[in-house]
Amino acid sequence: MDQAKIGRFIAECRKNANLTQMQLAEKLNITDRAISKWETGKSLPDSSVMLELCSILKITVNDLLSGEVVTMENYNKEMENKLIELVKQKEENDRRLLMLEWVIGILSCIILFVPIFIGSLVPLEDWKKIVLVFSGFIPGVVGLCFAMRIEQIAGYYACKHCKHKYVPTFKAISFAPHMGRTRYMKCPECGRKSWQKKVISKD
After folding, report:
1. d(CA 172, CA 100)
2. Once rounded to an integer, what is the mean pLDDT over residues 16-43?
3. ∠ at Cα 173 (149, 166), nearest 5°?
4. pLDDT for residue 20 is more than 90
5. Which long-range CB contacts under 8 A does 60-67 form with residues at least 24 apart?
6. How far apart, in Å, are the Cα atoms of 172 and each of 43, 87, 98, 140, 148?
7. What are the CA-CA distances from residue 146 to residues 54, 102, 119 (Å)?
8. How far apart are CA 121 and CA 116, in angstroms?
9. What is the pLDDT averaged over residues 42-71?
């Protein structure tokens, strides 16, 4: 989406509605600074205010995301383009999340095992060793759980049998045997278990 174009369109619609940035902000219960950021293309309206904004400016959400009033003859094509763009954005975000998962997973393992390694090498009293191990155990486990949560929600798992692609539950992810991002799970569509690979696209 062209944020600069959308920003110019918001400014134009606001002026056509005879509203100042402050007046529009008051109607939306936000700051005029947020309106300024939209109109300069620095950010986009949050989904929580998008419908109300469109209602005030007397435009559709499709108009807003297109940065122009969309005629009926172009409506379906514009909607199709927006949906394709949203799918692409989700796939890109999922790729970034999965990269972040690797970073968090590696750091968590370091945090988890370094205190154990130090405790086994350095002569310490038993209680100090216990404290040292737990100082790495708790944040390490929390980090690994967070990494697993990312793996759960980013992208999809593809069933080897029926090719169904789905987002599994966190419980299914937690207890599934795995090799990297391939997990042995039960498909909710066909009910059969298989080694299922992580994929980004649902196509």
Report:
1. 21
2. 92
3. 90
4. yes
5. 63/9, 64/6, 64/9, 64/10, 65/1, 65/6, 67/1, 67/2, 67/5, 67/6, 67/8, 67/9
6. 37, 25, 18, 21, 11
7. 37, 11, 26
8. 9
9. 86
**Which residues does 118 contact at the CB level (< 8 Å), separation at least 6?**
132
End-to-end CA distance of the chain: 22
d(CA 153, CA 170): 9
> What is the spatial order of strands in the sheet that 178-179 belongs to?
165-166, 156-158, 193-199, 182-186, 178-179
Tell me the pLDDT of the chain averaged across its residues: 87
pTM of the model: 0.53
- How far are the Cα atoms of 63, 85, 104, 137 from residue 169, in angstroms, in the given order? 36, 27, 20, 25
- Entry field: residues in the chain: 203
Max CA-CA distance within the chain?
78
The pair of structure tokens assigned to 27 is: 């109607």
Phi, psi dihedrals of residue 46, rounded to the nearest 5° = -70, 150
The DSSP code for 183 is E
Structural contact between residues 158 and 196, judged by C-beta atoms closer than 8 angstroms: yes
Closest Cα to residue 138, out of 115, 154, 162? Answer: 115
